[in-house]
Amino acid sequence: MKLSYKPVERGLWVRLMSPLGSYPANTFVTRSAAMVVTPEICFSVVRVEKEDWSFSEADSLTLLEIPLLGSILLSVRSGESYIYPYPTHQALLLETASKEDINDKCISECKDFLLDILKKPELGTWPADQIHRPPALGGNPYELVSDRHSDRDRRANLRQLESAGPVVIRGVSSLIKAHMAWKHAEMGEAACIFLWICLDAAHSLILQRLRETGVANPTSKDAVRYFEKISGYSIEWEKFFEEDYENRIRAIHPDNRFGAEARPQFLADDFYELNDMLIPLFQFLVSPPAGGPVNP
Length: 296
Known about the structure:
Blueprint: E1 2-4, E2 11-17, E3 22-24, E4 28-29, E5 33-37, E6 42-48, H1 66-74, E7 87-95, H2 104-118, E8 143-145, H3 151-162, H4 166-182, H5 188-212, H6 220-231, H7 242-252, H8 268-286
Parallel strand pairs: 3-8
Antiparallel strand pairs: 1-7, 2-6, 2-7, 4-5, 5-6
Helix pairs in contact: 1-3, 1-4, 4-5, 4-8, 5-6, 5-7, 5-8
């Protein structure tokens, strides 16, 4: 196992999780991915099975990592506290000689590599790096959330997400980033924008499901009726999540049909209410089409 600074055919992506997030109280491990949780440091590990030359200077998360993070976020039973992973940009790629399963030995080696890299001063160049420091290096404690019987749900969601299409992955990624931005009070509007991207993904996924059931040209009103059916709620919307879409228009388009606003007025509930509806909706959409009801 060795560090690599270019794509590899076989390897492991290892990423530091920030104390700004929240995590399950126990480590979650599968053959292809792991969320490693200890009081000293939390980090993710995902297996690389082919070279990936995709690149973004604005988004450090790889497509391989989003299914793991999404499986943590979406695997919450009714009445439990949500768990919000906060992946940092501090990550490393390890090349391995073979396609090895993620196990205790592998995790221990990944931890050593990560701690060694985090101690190097050149990785402290971003202003936010200090607040992401793990307790092992003098940072704030992690918030660990006790949850029961979630590993089976996580494994099921991970399997679905690992084979999911780009719209699902983009929606789940935006849902993760929304709460990351919400951790910073000055970035509240950006958090809402991430949720609206997630909402647009949900709209597209529902229209696709309607097409698969034989609806030739489904509309936003059809999507409303579908949401009513799966959630059990009676909703007086003419269009899918119409108030949230109006808020998105007001935020993204400075001059719009609702009037030009230098500072659009949004409420905290514009984030909380939509977030609390989108998580169970994506729990449903990530599951196979015969999934159970949504309970926001």
